[in-house]
Amino acid sequence: MQAEQISIFIENKAGRLSDVTGILAEADVNIRALAVADTSDFGVLRLIVDNNAKAEDVLKKSGFTVRKTRVVAVEVNDTPGGLHHILNVLKEAGINVEYMYAFVQQSGNNAIMIFRFDQTEPAIQVLQKKGVTVIDGKTLSTL
Amino acid sequence: MIHNIEYETMPREALESIQLKRLQAVISHVYAAVPFYRKKLEEANILPGDIKSLKDLQRLPFTTKQDLRDNYPFGMFAVPMANVVRIHASSGTTGQPTVVGYTARDIDTWAELMARALSAAGAGRGDIIHNAYGYGLFTGGLGVHYGAEKLGASVIPVSGGNTKRQAIIMRDFKPTILTATPSYTLHLAEAAEEMGISFKNLHFKAGIFGAEPWSEDMRTEIEHKLNMDALDIYGLSEVMGPGVAIECIEAKHGLHIFEDHFIPEIINPETGAVLPYGETGELVFTTITKEAFPILRYRTRDITTLNPDPCICGRTLVRMGKVSGRTDDMLIIRGVNVFPSQIESVLMQVKGVEPHYQLVVDRVDNLDTLTVRVEIGENLFSDEVKKLQELEKQISKDIKETLGVSAKVQLAEPKSIARSEGKAMRVIDNRKI
Predict the structure, then answer these.
(1) Residues of chain B contacting residue A44, judged by C-beta atoms under 8 Å apart
(2) Average per-residue pLDDT in chain B?
(3) Which residues of B touch A63 (CB under 8 A)?
(4) Fold for the domain defined by A3-69
(5) Residue B382: closest CA among chain A residues belongs to which residue?
């Protein structure tokens, strides 16, 4: 039920982000979701794309440090308290969210959030037990 | 002022005859007392009796930093420990620091030479010397201290650090002579200014600055900002410590080497050939009066020239130019010797680090800063910023513990460090010296 994210190390300097998007565009890879975590001198670019293998390959060939990370895509009710409900379930289970960001596309009427947990499998189990929909990677790329 | 008129203004011929006698004595001494030198001399087919003129010095083999490391800690000492009253050590390079020893007479000689140096800057009895060189294993603090006492001046052993307290002491104790590294001095001046203490209102006449290379531009800046004469001093623990050579306040043009105790040579660092006066090359020293740690033809790796022209101050001692560079890649950062190879060995101990790094040295607010850029490979990369920052902190801590110098660690993209002919550009020194 896990999804795959590509993380890329980028130095904090002008034009680096567009270098990455340029390489992906050239390779005909579509970016489905994106988040940047940054410090004063570097950033980590996190991407969900429609073709991981290709994205990783072309980025590595261009000299980027790339890593694949297991993340979890979760359906969130697009109503007040929707995200809060999910975070509450996780809190009660003692699961820590390392980071999260929003997916561009919706799933039906629900929003989709990408989560990185400190314990991935237990997180998926506890969410499913509480009736939260977890979207697997394959489904995610077809949305 | 000339502290020792007899020796500092001696006619060259008389000086050279004293040098020869002392050189012969030191060679006999090390031949008998230090197995390392005996072996070296035997390999070169030289017996102590073969040294008949100063020119014969050129036949002797060189001594290098590596020789000192190989004989760590006391292998180069020429007297039994019972006669050693002091031990100093230089900041450790890859592996071992170099350790030097002094007999009571060596300490006395050192104090005499340091008194001469202070005197050359115009210091004397009644002067108050603010000594901001570090006290400890480093020779700077204690070297100046003993010289100041020998001279009969009043010395404040303030040592390095605690800048605010230093500024208050300078205001309240009214010192007249400052001894410090030039970069710390400028830092001190700024800190004092922020506290409302202006050097213009202080009582300094002159400052003696050394332990790191500095330029004529920096002299102008210090003299202007701090309202004092700024003089360069030269020394290294392997030869003695501060007080090997000093600029005189009259000329401020080259550092007089106390040749009645040290014989300088300039060599071509590639071939080892001795170069004539005026030519630029590596400075080499032979000590001719030291007892505990005599050294023959020590290669300092400092690049300079020698000038034998008579000086307006009256000293007949040869002058060395300001050190213009080094023959190796050693960096001096806030008085600490740093070799890129040391940083490399620290990095290599961090699991997953690749040997692609670069040292960037800057001078910010007059203090040296060291940034270590490290290329990040897949092994170390994490999608979590927290882990990457922890990695930076860990490397920085390891560097501090191993080298004693603070460094900012900056992760860099692979291949982002410029390589020339496949070899990385290891050091970028942005300091304007």
Answers:
(1) 382-385, 388
(2) 91
(3) 413-415
(4) VC0802-like (3.30.2130)
(5) A67
